[in-house]
Amino acid sequence: MRTTVTLDPDLAVRLRQLAHERGISFKAAINATLRSGIEAGSGSAAPYRERTRHLGVQPGVDLTKALQLAATLEDDETMREFELRK
After folding, report:
1. Is residue 60 one of the residues assigned to a domain?
2. Among 1, 10, 22, 38, which residue has the fewest nearby CB atoms (within 10 Å)?
3. What is the pLDDT of residue 44?
4. Is residue 57 part of a domain?
5. Residue 84: inside a domain, yes or no?
6. What does the pLDDT look like over 23-82, one tens digit per residue?
């Protein structure tokens, strides 16, 4: 089937390099690249699963406000350092 496709310049260069390296036509390089991309996205791979780890957080520690706690601790340390300079 004949169709017109507009390629980004960087892709055209990479496809021409691929064709040259493999000793195939530009058309064959495009077809091979499209086939491998379509097959890779066919969903045959297993879904990604994130492994979780227990952080050993002590009871009563609320991590939902961890950034606020970190900012408060940083402010306290800055004030302590400021006081030591006086």
Report:
1. no
2. 1
3. 63
4. no
5. no
6. 999 999 999 999 998 888 766 667 788 998 887 777 877 778 888 888 999 999 999 999
